[in-house]
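Data deposition worksheet. Section B asks for the primary sequence of the deposited chain exactly as it was used as input, without tags or linkers unless they were present during the calculation. Section C holds the resulting structure in token form. Section D is free text for depositor observations; keep each observation to a single sentence. Incomplete worksheets are returned to the depositor.
Section A, Depositor: J.P.
Section B:
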Amino acid sequence: MTSAPAPASGAAQAAPVAGAPHLLGPSFDSVTPVRQPAPAPAPAVRIDRVSKRFGAGPVVLDDVSLDIAPGEFVCLLGASGCGKSTLLNLIAGLDRPTAGRIDTPAEGSAVMFQESALMPWLTARRNVELALRLRGVPRGERREKALTLLEAVNLTDAAEKRPHELSGGMRQRVALARALAQDRPVLLMDEPFAALDAITRDLLHEELERVWRSTGRTIVFVTHNVREAARLGQRVVLMGSRPGRIVQEWTIAKTTGRRIESPEVAALSVEITDQLRKEIRRNAA
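Section C:
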């Protein structure tokens, strides 16, 4: 029996069987493509080296820079006079910075102040409908949308009551529903619960957190209450004063299940308060 002749020197080798491993070196077909990481989303609010001076007075804000991500809940915290509300007004477009720039969504921001500022002659529903009307919502749709928004803040039963018939906490809920009616991607809140008692404030914290999680709004919340900031914020930004500037930030990894009396809120409050006291002493020196 004769054996098959060996291939002549320099003869071409048989092509490898499809699917078989390539023994002569790496195959380009077997290389796993490297996936590039997805780019980070653009900030919902970008504050870039912003300073503010009113006329010839002292500098109120000095070289403030801060990026706020879409859907983030950020609390601006600091002693009275540190420029928190001034910065919020600049973000809202109610004033212009002396230096630097602020970038916000083209749709603008909704603002909720410490006072509810409801129209006293209108019912809760009609106050919310007014915001819808200014937004251009057709008349036939306003009532249903207003009731849906009042339901979101647990005020359906008070829809036909006027502001003088509502408690302070209920009026702030109407103000929140009215702010949501503007349908802006950013909600700016300037100490909206400062005048309320502790129990009502705690209830509104729960309502606000629920609304934030369900709507995905970006929220910038100004407060001088350390526990409130530690309870609500995904990020707490501490501002120093004379002039106003950012001195420290805290990022909270787990925000679900927090209450004002939670141990983690208490621990963070102690840490923030220590830093705040240092800033107050520094400014008093």
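Section D:
DSSP finds seven helices and nine strands in the chain.
The domain at 45-108+185-284 is CATH 3.40.50.300 (Rossmann fold).
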